[in-house]
Specification:
It is a single chain. The radius of gyration is 16 Å and the shape is globular. The chain contains eight helices and five strands, in the order H-E-H-E-H-H-E-E-E-H-H-H-H. The strands form two sheets. Strands 1-2-3 form a three-stranded parallel β-sheet. The chain has a single domain, classed as Glutaredoxin (3-Layer(aba) Sandwich). Helix 2 links the parallel strand 1 and strand 2. It has 164 residues and is of the alpha/beta class. It is found in: Secreted. Keywords: Glycoprotein, Secreted, Signal.
């Protein structure tokens, strides 16, 4: 799989695993979902476990989530081929309660909102939440503004996410 996704060195994932694939948004090609589908069809694995570490305001992550993953998750045939575990992750620095993120304070807020939503939602609902949230960011909204109006993105969960 390392050859498929490029020779970029990665410190965490076990690229040799055949039943689980952990990828970063920067290591993915535009046809990632289709490639995983073909691999699933050619193997005895019913569905691939895919873990995506993403940053809420990273332009590459937003593009991947709102383009390839949104289309893949919207198509039941393709969505059935992956068990997608999305993990809000950030290139953040800080000590104690103070934190700074690579793409600014709005990203820190977005990553926190996503981490709280992940804790409270089942995987399918969370994946849909992430796609909808990222689509709003691409459309020009901010994480701070979206955090103040979560009712449309997380029906029935907004208060719990905000309180987290």
């Amino acid at each position: 799989l390392a050859q498929v996704f490029g020779s970029r060195q990665h410190s965490g994932p076990d690229w040799e695993s055949t039943s689980a694939v952990t990828v970063s948004a920067l290591a993915l090609s535009n046809s990632m979902a289709r490639l995983l589908g073909l691999l699933a069809l050619a193997s005895s694995v019913a569905a691939f476990d895919v873990t995506l570490y993403y940053e809420t305001n990273c332009p590459y992550c937003k593009g991947l989530i709102t383009d390839e993953l949104a289309r893949t998750l919207a198509d039941p045939a393709w969505a059935a081929l992956i068990n997608l575990n999305m993990i809000p992750y950030g290139n953040a620095m800080g000590s104690g309660a103070a934190c700074s993120c690579q793409h600014g304070p709005d990203e820190c807020k977005g990553n926190k909102i996503h981490a709280c939503a992940k804790k409270l939602m089942d995987q399918k609902a969370f994946n849909q939440f992430v796609v909808a949230f990222e689509q709003q960011l691409v459309a020009g909204q901010t994480s701070v503004a979206l955090g103040q109006n979560l009712a449309s993105l997380a029906p029935g969960q907004a208060a719990a996410i905000t309180a987290c």
